[in-house]
Amino acid sequence: MLISEVVIEGLDGHPERERLELAAYGAMTVLPGTEVTRSELRNDLQAIYATGWFSDVRIQPVDSPLGVRLKVMVTPNPVLTRISLDPPDAKVPAKVVDDTFAGDIGKTLNLNTLQTRMQELQKWYGDQGYSLARVTGPGRVSPEGEVQLVVRQGTVEGVEVQFLTKDGSTTNDKGQTIRGKTRLWVITREISLRPGQVFNRRNLEEDLKRLYGTGLFSDVKVTLRPVPEDPGRVTIVLGIVEQSTGSLSGGLGYSQSQGVFGQVQLQDSNLLGRAWDVATSFTYGQFGGLADITFTDPWIKGDPYRTAIRIKAFVSRDVPQMFQSQNNGNIYTASEFYQAPGTNVAYNVNSTINPTLNGYNSVTAARAASESLGQNNSWFNYNGNTVVLQRIGANLQAVRPLNGGNPFKRVPWSLVVGLSGQQVTPMNFSGQIQPYGVSTNGFDPTGSFVPTNDVICIAYNCANHNQLLGVRVAATMNTLNDPRNPTRGNFISLGTEQFISVGPDSPTFNRLRASFTHYIPVKWLKLYKGCRPKPGQTEDCKQALAFQVSAGSNVGSLPTYEAFCLGGGNSVRGYYDCDLGVGRSFGEATLEYRFPLFSIVSGELFVDGGTTFGSQANVPGNPGALLLKPGQGFSVGTGLIVTTPVGPLRLEVASQDFTGQWRFNLGVGWKF
């Protein structure tokens, strides 16, 4: 047929008439003066529909003297006034919907544009982790211009646990279903997604991190199984591969307080399948030993706050470094001491160089002989061994994140509450009780007498035993970006421990401690190739400027052995352990620059400083002054940190002030 004219009808009075007419004309291939077939007219009909502007399109040919007049009758879509979602409580916020369609409200609805906007909503769901959500529609378009979109968000039907072999099979060689050791609730309590909740990939990824973080599983496989009768719901199937949680380990090491030591540990980190960690260890070294048993429940069952508890019982013998120095003498043991009024020199009962010209086997005998001669002398029974402290006790500690009852919420602050009790006994290496100590710096050349001030009490009240009962409350804040080698964030620790007297030889005092650590990422040195990535490569350059400030103070009847020690690999590194000072109070600060050298080797430059704030004289017996410890100082040094399978190993060299004296330090892990 020959087309003489093409007319668009149905747009009279429409606010966007011209725009829609142009859209319709532009979609057609039929032009006046051309001959067309019915097939070509059907194609044009479909093309006009495809513009997305019209809800109905009809083409009617009408004969005319000049040929066929083609009437295209269209019904435009309504003007878009509102977008609604089904269900109304869909996860996407109303603001996101409003912003997505802001440019379309008040204009004629275009179904093509609508599909584009729906894809934008679909992308929002995907970006937020709702990977099963689907936006479809429109489900309904009202004459008033309200469009309803259907959102199938994808909900969780439940969580199912399957135990697998290392090969991924659910059955063993005999065809029997694998039965795991771990209780099901230990696994499912780490899953935040609950039946009826909208599935979220991000939440599931965090759940898997928590499962791996328990240390109980070598692999966790996830399968999403659709529910046949409801395709919009899925069951999360967890394929769990358990790993061995029992271990027997041993090793050798060295520390200044214990010398060369060996350690054996027996541990099960999944006792009874309840994620309970029970460990017993025995350490024995040149200068001491330790035996303990520890029970840890990382999450009390049913507690919404994720509270953890730890119970430890121990017996130890160690050499307290506050009674030793590297180059300025030591404080050695004495079993008895008597100070006569008005005297300032005490005599060794084991020597004949004294006013009585005789030696004695006890202070009591020496005092009796001295008084029988009308003499007023002070005496001590010098044993001459290194001071050893034996501690027998137990402690209980509870840690609760301040998560408001949401166990899956990451929060920086945690609260720590603890209770401890122990009996402390001063002795020598033979196990003989030695409640006194004598500074070797005060001896005369023959070793027969010392100033009375050089004989001090090792224990509180010069007793054979002290009982310490303490209650501890602390809070920590952690925003570090990496628990092992952070480059950004803060760590704050605030704590107080109150010791309560339970007898005449049980002191009452309070210990306060606080520390603040701050990391700043920097890119000063680019020695490691990971700091110089090529295009398309990911940067691997853990480099930071780290600060730490810590301080503490003791208030009350302080036992000498509970004073603060300054100096050592985890203090001011240019000084040996406790060689800088022994104080009732202390303050320390460290500035450290860390940078990578090779894939497993990092370097560090640091400055440490510490002070007792002049409180050495306030420690009973003043062991710091007796051993000529300066009480304040600093160190400048450098070091290498090597990453090994057992953790980072630290080799450092640091100065004592600017004296030219240097100390090498070997440690495990970063200082902080």
Notes on the protein architecture:
This protein has 672 residues and is mainly beta. Among the domains are: 3-76, Ubiquitin-like (UB roll); 82-152, Ubiquitin-like (UB roll), CATH 3.10.20.310; 155-242, Roll (Ubiquitin-like (UB roll)); 481-489 and 504-672, membrane protein fhac: a member of the omp85/tpsb transporter family (Porin, Beta Barrel), CATH 2.40.160.50. A hairpin with a 4-residue loop joins strand 11 and strand 12 (276-285). The longest helix has 17 residues, at 111-127.
How is the topology of this model organized?
Layout: E1 3-9, H1 17-27, H2 38-50, E2 54-64, E3 67-76, E4 82-86, H3 94-100, H4 111-127, E5 134-141, E6 146-152, E7 155-163, H5 184-188, H6 201-213, E8 217-227, E9 230-242, E10 246-255, E11 259-271, E12 276-285, E13 288-297, E14 308-318, E15 331-338, E16 345-348, H7 363-372, E17 378-386, E18 388-401, E19 413-427, E20 436-439, E21 449-451, E22 455-457, E23 466-478, E24 489-500, E25 509-521, E26 544-556, E27 564-566, E28 581-583, E29 585-596, E30 601-611, H8 623-626, E31 632-644, E32 647-655, E33 662-668
Parallel strand pairs: 1-3, 4-6, 7-9, 16-17
Antiparallel strand pairs: 2-3, 5-6, 8-9, 10-11, 11-12, 12-13, 13-14, 14-18, 15-17, 15-20, 16-21, 18-19, 19-23, 20-22, 23-24, 24-25, 25-26, 26-29, 27-28, 29-30, 30-31, 31-32, 32-33
Helix pairs in contact: 1-2
Brief overview:
This protein has 672 residues and is mainly beta.
Name some characteristics of this structure.
672 residues, six-stranded mixed beta sheet, Ubiquitin-like (UB roll), 33 strands, 16-stranded antiparallel beta sheet, mainly beta
